[in-house]
Amino acid sequence: MTVQKLMVVSNREPYEHRKRDGRLRCERTDGGLTSALDPALCRLGGTWIAWGSGEEDRQAVGPDDIVSVPPGSPAYQLKRVWLSPQDVKHGYLGYANQVLWPLCHITLDRVAYRKSFWKSYQALNVCFADAVNEELRRCPSAVWVHDFHLALLPKLIKQANPDEPVALFWHIPWPGPDVFRILPERCEVLDGLLAADSLVFQTADYAQMFTECAHHFLNAQIDPRNLSDGTIIHKGHRTQVSAHPISVDFQAFSQGAVAPQVELAMDLIRRRIGAAPGVRFGIGVDRLDYTKGLLKRLWALDAFFSRYPQYQGLFTFIQVAVPTRSEMEAYRRYRAVIRETVNEINRRYGRAGRRGARWRPIALHEGRIGFDTLLAYYRMADLALVSSVYDGMNLVAKEYVASQVDEAGVLLVSEMAGSALELTDALLINPYDPDGIADAVKQALEMPEEERRLRMRRMRTHLEQHDIHAWVAGCLRDAGVAPDQQPASIG
Ligand code: ADP
Ligand code: G6P
User: Fold this and answer.
1) Fold identical between 6-246+469-478 and 250-465?
2) How far apart, in whole angstroms, are the C-alpha atoms of residue 233 and residue 236?
3) How many angstroms is it from 351 CA to the middle of ligand 2?
4) Any residues with CB less than 8 A from the CB of 228 and at least 6 apart, and which?
């Protein structure tokens, strides 16, 4: 295994430059991909190639389109790729977000296919390939591609650089052949991916379904005894397929949660919500995405307050929701429905509160929050509720566990999220069953302290061992790559 420089490639950039109050600021972006990979790159160093998604991004880069990040303690280089408005509209928002995203999350009514999307998706991938190939000429590296926006990239890179190792991690679920056949370009997508040397999925089930698709649609040669951890041969090229569940920087959450500023933030939150002493909390933290099952979560909370009125006035659910993909009508509509439903539930039960007029059944905070505030919510919450209708992993579930230093909280996680397979001491819920979730919320609030501690401790021990750094090591090992660790600061 030769030591190599690492080049990460994703559509979404980990940091974006935006003007706030007339000043150029560098901010973290949202989503599991960037949350997980940023700490990994901070440790390993290297180059991350991603879409420069705003006008201010151009002002921040040097002549080679590179800017060092994170701001304040630069550890790696971010090289920005500029996409045309057409490729953003039809490639990213169209093919990636309105075709591949709902298809892989099996929300088939949301698939809005148009032929023109495919052309732009191809163009988007070519644009990334140009940037990667240019960078490879400057500095040979192992290339680690991420997610469904860039399925054609492995082939485009390998055509120009047959000897560079190329790996790809697919962050979202992969459906079986019965669903994947919906995609008119299913063969081209599989063909693009199978040029990679290593393809890694979140779970063994997704890896197995990918292998089945490769066999079914391309007649690729597979090892029938090893569908989720074996080799696929397509056009004479071997691709290693495996599964490694993505994780969190356990130490950063666990140590961060006991910082004095986090304890201050907990007091501040209690005061802001106006919660009377003794009121207990639930937490949800999500992008405002229909796959997160937010509406179903609200229906379940409605059922909870209706079935168990003794909790009216004594339990508040805090929902932190960051708007996402707002260029798309479906996402804007979803956001509006969430707001209306929260208001409706608050109107209905709010008055019934026994602990004074200020009790709110649901406190909705829309927008991005800082790390200390996030830790404060996680640490103070008696329970966390993850209700995705389908989810590759769901890092919020793991972040909650990593932040639960007092081991007092209970995690409720959807059976349809990849994290449910690992966090077996969570209470499993079915997002389609509001009464079942209501019962699980009650069970969590009434669970004896000893049982809560035991469950949380076991999950924390698991995550301490299976953290983001172990995930990186596993993925790169499968790709046959030993990264050349660069100094933490490139100041
Ligand atoms: P997805 O990748 O689909 O967005 P995950 O649950 O895996 O779902 O990851 C979401 C990530 O985004 C987590 O790291 C979470 O902490 C972060 N996040 C979500 N909402 C917010 C918010 N309002 N402010 C800050 N970070 C957020
Ligand atoms: C999920 C996807 C990521 C994506 C993120 C945010 O985590 O797996 O690839 O970056 O959502 O979505 P966005 O469209 O804003 O990049």
Assistant:
1) yes
2) 6
3) 38
4) 204, 205, 207, 208, 211, 241, 242, 243
Is residue 320 in contact with ligand 1, taking CB distance under 6 Å?
Answer: yes
User: For 250-465, which CATH superfamily applies?
Assistant: Glycogen Phosphorylase B; (3.40.50.2000)
Rounded to 10 degrees, what is the CA torsion of 295, 296, 297, 298? 60
Could you give the count of Cα atoms lying within 13 Å of 228 in the half-sphere of its Cβ? Answer: 13
Q: How far is the CA of 6 from the centre of ligand 2 (A)?
A: 21
Q: List the pLDDT tens digit at each of the 491 positions of the chain.
A: 566 899 999 999 999 999 998 999 999 999 999 999 999 999 999 999 999 999 999 999 998 999 999 999 999 999 999 999 999 999 999 999 999 999 999 999 999 999 999 999 999 999 999 999 999 999 999 999 999 999 999 999 999 999 999 999 999 999 999 999 999 999 999 999 999 999 999 999 999 999 999 999 999 999 999 999 999 999 999 999 999 999 999 999 999 999 999 999 999 998 888 778 889 999 999 999 999 999 999 999 999 999 999 999 999 999 999 999 999 999 999 999 999 999 999 999 987 655 455 799 999 999 999 999 999 999 999 999 999 999 999 999 999 999 999 999 999 999 999 999 999 999 999 999 999 999 999 999 999 999 999 999 999 999 999 999 999 999 999 999 887 776 545 54
In ligand 1, the atom with minimum distance to the C-alpha of 370 is 25
Burial of 2 (0-12, 13-18, 19+ CB in 10 A): exposed
**Domain extents for the chain?**
6-246+469-478, 250-465
Evaluate whether 222 touches 215 at the Cβ level (below 8 Å).
yes
What homologous superfamily does CATH list for 6-246+469-478? Glycogen Phosphorylase B; (3.40.50.2000)
CA 31 to ligand 2 center in whole angstroms? 5
| Pocket around ligand 2 at a 6 A CB cut-off | 12, 31-33, 147, 171-172, 324-325
Distance 147 CA to ligand 2 centre (A): 9
Atom from ligand 2 closest to the CA of residue 148: 9
